[in-house]
């Protein structure tokens, strides 16, 4: 398939014309939203708003010392998250980096269980042992948030091999950040996935920063989608602030992978509204870059777009926002009311299966 080579800033998004032609029987709005069922558009706005409110409450929980360890938020990446998850079937599986709260929510996991994981409670997705970076839910098809940069890439590739070996029709989506595309495992995994034609879509959320390092400072080829060319793989770049463009590109590449068309690399250009993690004041950013990020806030932009198109009015938008706030607040109450794990279970999930010589000792126990 031809490599798309959109230059930085010039991102491809689905043509208005084809969108209009595809489903003119649906919504009556014109412009880029033409043909989109209105209820679906409102659903996207609901989900994006829930992620926004949830992450705001997570940040608050961290400053109240209710949440420990590291904590990275999807603030500014809501359109990317929702667009990507809408391209997957329930049976498709997702691997992500540590910035995954929004993915867990958009993959259909109850907000209370996601917040409880942040709070380290037994009702959390990983029984409270994983925390912010290690959400896991086999039923929902979320096979992990990973704290090691790029740790998810070989695992996702292996999962795609397992699907292929068993003759399944599921697809793996492997999300990562821009700062992950220069590590060895990225290149090894893309190579093997292309060689063996595995059903996996690699997604780079290019928020233009790896902690405080810009893409231009770290990557000799800053147009990250072009890395696919080294493996004769399809690569393309899309505006990560456009939920419909993300959904459409992802859906096309997921279906290509599902039908034996092989893996692909999708780059989504996005913005991180806050610091790398909740404790990062982001002092290394210029005022100009912060202003630019705020101006392209995908939640505010989508809200304005839906109002402009008559899909929402102010009252309906405000109603969705207060419902999202109530859901985020209820998630906090659920987490707060849930029990902490019993210390005696500390080593219970160290290995998937019991390991010989695993003495199940606690750190302070005598060695002999
Ligand atoms: C192997 C490894 N090296 C370094 C780190 C420290 N680290 C955590 S996040 C990060 C930046 C990754 O940036 P990017 O891939 O762009 O993801 P983003 O945080 O922007 O979502 C680094 C270097 C780590 N967790 N693992
Ligand atoms: Mg990044």
Automatic annotation (TrEMBL):
Annotated catalysed reactions: N(6)-[(R)-lipoyl]-L-lysyl-[protein] + pyruvate + H(+) = N(6)-[(R)-S(8)-acetyldihydrolipoyl]-L-lysyl-[protein] + CO2
Keyword Transmembrane: no
Annotated InterPro entries: DH_E1, PDH_E1_Alpha_Subunit, Pyrv_DH_E1_asu_subgrp-y, THDP-binding
CDD domains attached to this UniProt entry: TPP_E1_PDC_ADC_BCADC
Keywords, comma-separated and alphabetical: Oxidoreductase, Pyruvate, Thiamine pyrophosphate
A molecular function GO annotation: pyruvate dehydrogenase (acetyl-transferring) activity
Alphabetical list of Pfam families matching this protein: E1_dh
Transmembrane regions: none
Biased composition annotated in UniProt, kind: Low complexity: 1-25
Quaternary structure, from the entry: Heterodimer of an alpha and a beta chain.
Record-given protein name: Pyruvate dehydrogenase E1 component subunit alpha
Lineage, uppermost ranks: Bacteria, Bacillati, Actinomycetota, Actinomycetes, Pseudonocardiales
